[in-house]
Write a structure and sequence with these properties.
The protein has 927 residues and is mainly α. The protein contains 46 helices and 9 strands. The strands form 3 sheets. Strands 2-3-4-1-5 form a 5-stranded parallel sheet, with helices on both faces. A two-stranded antiparallel sheet has the order 6-7. Strands 8-9 form a two-stranded antiparallel ribbon. α7 links the parallel β3 and β4. The longest helix has 18 residues, at 574-591. It is globular, with a radius of gyration of 33 Å.
Length: 927
């Protein structure tokens, strides 16, 4: 019997290495949290290892929380999380109200729509962290491959954030299955078969009386699988000879048949109860017995289950019935006849009259034909699942509703399911749904909706024909009365036209289509963004006016800022966009909308870098990269690398800048992401300029002007025109640079964005004839450069160089000193050294810069320290950055010694930028 056989299996034969590994995780829990995923085939020993770890943890006084994935529960949102946290739900009273509400909504305890899933995940992390404050915690996750998707996502979120908490997470999953937790990039241990000697010892311990022939056959068939070695002997004499033939059946199926054969010996009432339990989506004993009583037409109680408990098939208490192994459940369900399974589902549906979502699934089980009443219940269940953040459940419910419902609703339901699958980032689910839709009788509006779903699921480069068909689909949507779809399709086209230039003819079509939405002053921020992206230079005047109004508003709607901030970027209004994106990022944090943050943080970082705000630029880019990797968004991770490369180049870390830029190019070029390729050149150009490699800088800048190059971008090329001009004056390319400056000026129009105005004035000064150069430099420096310190210092450096070469040495010193001081304050070492060399050439001695203490902080330490200076508690900082409050405490603990402080009260002074960096003579003595 299963229970008896397992007891005989101690100690864990052949698993000494794994036992030591798990023990070490528990040993180290006081100093750091860790996660580990055990992988292997069914019966290989995963559950036994988890059970032993749980026993050891309890012996050490740790709190142990467990959950088990069950295939039939996969459609119940947060079912696994509810099971995990049920023993400590009372501790939720210690959480802030917003987190208590998030958990209540997730578990269906309120009628409110659940918040964004990451807010639920943050609440779960904080709850477990609160429990860990009393004693270390072990989280045990069995059969992670069968967890509901929402729970799997939350546990993956937690597993990545327990480094500083006394928490260990152990999960077991089968080979060949995908899940958010199993595929979260956590440390893994694959469990293989037992070696021959260990397998023989285990078989001898569990079944010593076996005949030699049977023993040999079992060893061969079990192939080192511990569960097979324990279970096959109990039914060896009852299996047909052909079931022993090697390779006739997979081992899993042979084990299921063994379990089914054992269950067949149990009383009829017991087998009935087991079938209902196998098909139920919860382990509540009361509802299982009630459904069984309805079928048996007689009252059944716990005595009906006792034989199964005695046989080691299930674990039973007064409230729950749980199978000892998942294969027992599947064996019972699969061995039952169709009529028996249908009766069990019908009985469960009747018992669950007041639980409409669960009832709908049991009603829908094993049905065929048209049943619109059941389809309506499933559709409602899908709506509830969507409200609770369980999108995969919503997809499954709508798909099943489409199969059972009236034909007139089939297109709508399938398209809704496909739309939800897009939200999941699952093109592999979207495509089969769209294939079903295309086989139906579609009208013009339906075809437009199919186009929308298809294009949002596949982020692929578009050719001219595809752009035209998408614009046509948008017009079909408007003609069919779906204005929202019309706007969405044009926004999709406009944003794709930003990622890779579509060519002049296609852009003309897009501009015409944008006019059909009204002007850029429309109330809908999407319409405004379509205008900005459709023609960033031609529409700049109207866009800038609207952006100025939005940026000056006292309160900015985060949803509107999602469109206003990026629109500011595309027209080159980095100063306005920086403030709007700050509001958008704060709004997304508050709402727990983690999925949007990688894109917005990358844009925010790029703008902040141009404004010389390294603290924001570095922390935003680092956070963007971390979240993009977590969310499996390689393009946004690459985009974050371009922002980090830009900052590294501006600060003089040439090697890092080039490595990050190359890293981004390796991801972007195969995907046809011209935009990311273009952004990658910024870091390469500035790194080359900073180190005096002017030919390399010029070559990289020219790539953005070459239509045949993968970095070509006719709008973004204007952003580095000053860099191109700066490089050109050292390599005899002034005439070519002058032509590029005129080209950019012609494209820019009458009212370009702030950055484009600034770099054009800088570029004109750099390529001007000697007679006009002085006036051009003065014009460039007369601009409002208060928010552009790095660019101001570069203009001053170039002006000082020009003045010295014009033998106006005394005049050159003042602007060169100003450039040096700004570069020093910004930590731009090679640029400061260039100013020092010019000053020395003018006859003035200049000392070298000493780095500040704050330069030693990592980007994340700096971000956390900055938030602490604003008066936020560790918990509040954690909620903003989606980290546990203990992780925040750990980062501050590491930052204090680097800053030379011992308390939170000293942070503001330690982080305050100095107006002039400390300097030292060449002998290292600070002055």
């Amino acid at each position: 019997m299963l229970g008896t056989a397992r007891n005989k299996a101690t100690p864990l034969l052949g698993r000494a290495d794994e036992e030591k590994l798990l023990a070490s995780l528990l040993d180290e829990v006081a100093t750091r949290g860790q996660a580990l995923v055990l992988r292997g085939e069914p019966g290989i020993g995963k559950s036994r290892l988890l059970s032993e770890a749980a026993r050891t943890a309890r012996d050490r006084g740790m709190a142990v929380l467990t959950t088990t994935g069950v295939q039939s529960e996969a459609r119940l949102p947060f079912a696994g999380l509810h099971q995990l946290l049920r023993p400590v739900r009372d501790r939720a009273a210690d959480l802030p109200r917003i987190q208590r509400s998030a958990l209540d909504a997730a578990f269906g305890l309120t009628h409110e729509a659940a918040p964004e899933q990451y807010r639920i995940a943050m609440a779960a992390l904080d709850l477990v962290s609160e429990v860990a404050a009393d004693a270390p915690v072990l989280l045990v996750v069995e059969d992670a491959h069968w967890l509901d998707h929402a729970t799997s996502d939350v546990l993956a979120f937690i597993a990545r954030r327990i480094e500083s908490d006394p928490i260990v997470l152990l999960a077991a999953t089968r080979e060949g299955y995908t899940s958010a937790l199993g595929d979260a990039g956590l440390p893994e241990r694959a469990l293989g078969a037992l070696d021959d000697a260990t397998a023989a010892a285990l078989l001898e311990a569990s079944a010593p009386q076996l005949p030699l022939a049977t023993r040999t056959e079992i060893l061969r068939e079990a192939a080192g699988n511990p569960l097979a070695l324990l279970e096959l002997p109990t039914v060896a004499g009852r299996l047909e000879d052909d079931q022993w033939l090697g390779g006739a059946l997979p081992l899993t199926e042979r084990l299921e048949r063994a379990f089914a054969a054992r269950v067949s010996d149990l009383p009829d009432a017991t087998r009935l109860v087991l079938l209902i339990a196998a098909l139920n989506d919860e382990d509540t004993l009361g509802e299982i017995l009630e459904a069984g009583s309805a079928i048996a037409a007689t009252a059944l109680d716990v005595d009906a289950v006792a034989p199964a408990g005695d046989a080691g098939v299930v674990d039973v208490d007064l409230q729950t019935l749980r199978f000892r192994h998942p294969l027992v459940r599947s064996a019972i369900a699969q061995s039952a006849g169709l009529a028996d399974r249908r009766r069990a589902h019908e009985a469960l549906a009747n018992v669950l009259e007041d639980q409409t979502d669960r009832r709908a699934w049991h009603r829908a089980a094993l049905l065929s034909g048209e049943h619109e009443d059941v389809a309506l219940e499933l559709e409602e269940a899908g709506t509830h699942a969507r409200q609770r953040g369980a999108i995969p459940v919503a997809v499954a419910a709508l798909r099943r509703a489409a199969q059972l419902g009236e034909p007139a609703s089939r297109i709508r339901r399938l398209l809704a399911a496909a739309g939800f699958a897009v939200e999941l980032g699952r093109p592999d689910v979207v495509e089969p749904l769209l294939r079903e839709v295309r086989q139906l009788d579609l009208g013009e509006l339906d075809r437009a909706r199919v186009t929308w779903v298809e294009e949002t699921a596949l982020t692929r480069p578009l050719d001219a024909g595809r752009y035209a068909s998408l614009i046509a689909a948008a017009e079909q949507a408007e003609a069919g009365g779906d204005h929202d779809l019309h706007v969405n399709l044009l926004w999709l086209v406009a944003s794709r036209a930003w990622w890779a230039d579509p060519g002049p003819e296609t852009r003309r079509l897009l501009i015409e289509a944008a006019r059909g939405l009204g002007d850029e002053n429309a109330d809908d921020p999407r319409v405004f963004a379509v205008h900005a992206y459709a023609d960033p230079l031609g529409h700049a005047s109207g866009v800038l006016a609207r952006l100025s109004t939005a940026a000056s508003a006292q309160h900015t709607d985060p949803d509107a800022a999602l469109f206003f901030g990026p629109a500011a970027l595309v027209v080159g209004a980095f100063d306005l966009g920086n403030d709007l994106l700050a509001a958008a990022v704060d709004g997304l944090r508050t709402q727990g909308r983690l999925g949007h943050l990688p894109r917005l943080l990358t844009l925010y970082s790029s703008m902040a870098a141009r404004l010389g705000d390294w603290d924001v630029a570095l922390t935003a880019a680092e956070e963007s990269r971390r979240l993009a990797e977590e969310l499996s968004e390689p393009q946004w991770a690459a985009a974050a690398d371009t922002a980090l490369a830009l900052v590294a180049a501006m600060r003089g870390d040439e090697q890092t800048a080039n490595v990050l830029a190359a890293q981004a190019e390796r991801v972007a070029e195969p995907a046809g992401a011209n935009i990311t390729m273009a952004f990658a050149q910024f870091g390469k150009v500035l790194a080359a300029l900073g180190s005096g490699r002017h030919a390399d800088a010029y070559s990289s800048a020219e790539r953005l002007f070459d239509p045949a190059d993968s970095a070509y971008h006719p709008v973004i090329s204007s952003w580095l025109i000053a860099d191109l001009a700066d490089a050109a004056r050292y390599i005899d390319q002034l005439d070519a640079a002058r032509a590029r400056v005129l080209q950019v000026e012609e494209r820019a129009g009458d009212r370009p964005g702030t950055w484009i105005v600034l770099v054009l004035r800088h570029a004109h000064a750099l390529v001007a004839e000697p007679a006009q150069a002085g006036r051009r430099f003065e014009e460039a420096l007369a601009s409002d450069l208060a928010r552009w310190p790095f660019q101001r210092a570069r203009i001053q450096l170039a002006f000082g160089q020009w003045l010295r070469r014009q033998r106006r040495v005394a005049e050159s010193r003042a602007v060169l000193r100003a450039a040096r001081d700004t570069f020093d304050a910004l930590g731009c070492t090679p640029w400061g050294e260039q100013a020092r060399r010019e000053l020395r050439a003018s006859g003035e001695r200049s000392r070298r810069r000493i780095p500040e203490a704050r330069d030693q902080l990592t980007a994340q330490e700096l971000q956390i320290a900055q938030l602490a200076t604003e008066g936020l508690s560790n918990r509040e900082i954690g909620q903003r950055l989606f980290l546990s409050h203990r992780t925040i405490s750990t980062h501050l603990y590491r930052a204090f010694p680097k800053l030379g402080i011992t308390s939170r009260a000293e942070l503001s002074a330690a982080l305050a930028p100095v107006s002039r960096a400390a300097e030292a003579d060449d002998d290292g003595q600070v002055r």
